[in-house]
Amino acid sequence: MNLSLETRALTIRFGGHVAVDNVSCGFAAGTLTAIVGPNGAGKTTYFNLISGQLRATSGRVFLHGEDISAFSAPKRSHLGIGRAFQLTNLFPNLTVLENVRLAVQSRAGLGFNLWSVWSSHKELIGRAEEVLETVALSAKCDVAAYALPHGDQRKLEVGILMALEPDIFMFDEPTAGMSVDEVPVILDLIRSLKARRNKTILLVEHKMDVVRELSDRIVVLHNGALVADGEPAAVIASPVVQEAYLGVEVAR
Predict the structure, then answer these.
(1) CATH code for the domain in which residue 67 is found
(2) Secondary structure percentages of the chain, helix, strand, coil, to 5
(3) Is 161 helix (H, G, I), strand (E, B) or coil?
C-alpha cells in the first residue's frame, strides 16, 4: 500500500503519564479512517503529534515517505497536513469572507498578506465565495468571525481548511456542539471529500452512527495504545472495543 501518512512507534510522555504509547499506523490516500476510543484514550493527542502541535517523546511521523518529525506545525501545514478546528481564532476580528479568502490566498502561494489588493485577485475572491457557499455561510460573509455562533464557527473552520486544499484532512469531532440541523452540512462536506478518492481523511468522532457510515477503517486507541485496527463492522464487534469503548462486559 502506498501510504501518504505514517506514524512509527509514536510516543509522548507527560511526566509519568504515557498519553500516546508506541503507535504505529499508516494511512493511504482515498481512505477515511475513524480514530475512536473512550475519553482520555489519546485520540486528540495523537492528532496533535501528527499535525505538530506537540513534539513526540519518541517515534516518527512520515508524510509521503518524508520524515517530518522535526518540522513545526506551520511547516507540516505547508506540506499538506490540514487540521480542522485549529484556525478559527487566527483572525477573529475579520469577516467570514476575509478569513476564507486569506486561506485561498495562502493556498495560491501569496501568503497571509492582509494588505494584498484583493480587487486584483478576483478569481481568488470567487474561490472564497464558492467555499462559503459550500459550507452554508454565504449569508454571513460580512459577519466578524468572533460574532458567529458556535456551529457557524465550526463551519468556518472547515471552510478555511477546504480553502487550503491539503492532502491530509484531520477532523477532530467535527460535529461536536452543533445543532441537529447543522450536522448534515459538515457530514456532507466530509462525504464529498471522501468521494474524490485522492485525499487522506482522519476522523475523531464519538458518534458511532457517523463512524459506521463514513469510515473505511476504524483504529481504536485505549490508554494511549492502539488496541484494534480494521474494517468497521469487525472492529466494532470485537471484544476489546465492546469493553474499552462501548463499556460492554464481554464474557470470557
Answers:
(1) 3.40.50.300
(2) 40, 25, 35
(3) helix
